[in-house]
């Protein structure tokens, strides 16, 4: 809902000394819950957080351009010719980078260039998804893109989530869970896994609401768990024999190489797991609660829902 109000007519004296009437100028007081005049470009629109974010934005009335490498709105970090068409009409952008893949990619330069183009095209707000990993992994910095967004001139918010629950029911660990064993060089380290739905909800708030500019949110679940506890929870809920098998860093790299995973990406994944082994980001945060006004979803609730959906049935 919007309310149109009118300034009181009056007169003004010009530089020549003549007096002219001032026409009443309407202005609009906008309902803060009305986002019908906001267009959001969502990069990675088919990814874990992007495909959850798109319906949330639409539910709040925003217009959404869900971009991907093969979708109707095409966006490819490796093809700058796709950047400007994707930005057409966008007021806000959800940025997901391209670090989680084999090969080297200059995240800082690419994100800085895109953010600058976005501001030139009229974007006034950006939310950047990074990771709650501040050390280099596999020779990459997973927060390399932050400076380019912070310095672009738009309002910015950075999201740094812990590992997603959804790695176990739709992501990289699903096949291992179905096979009955998850080998990983994470030892007995702790990780406060987070629900991708909570991350998407925080992203929606940062894109559509005021009060989040200039903030970095570290997004976690309510409690830290070991991989052993995670797998035991899944095994108990499914009634299946599923085990976590701790392996060494090099054993994991060698196993991935046997499956023709690129050497640099195998090291990247092993280094990521080592962050959990060393409990680098094991402390739960209250950022989900501070943004959403509720507690983050617990892993047990996620598992119950996944079991109900049959995702781990053989």
UniProtKB/TrEMBL annotation:
Name by which UniProt lists this protein:
NAD(P)H-binding protein
Question: What Gene3D superfamilies would the database entry show?
Answer: NAD(P)-binding Rossmann-like Domain, UDP-galactose 4-epimerase, domain 1
What region holds the NmrA-like domain?
37-287
Q: Which organism is it from?
A: Streptomyces gulbargensis
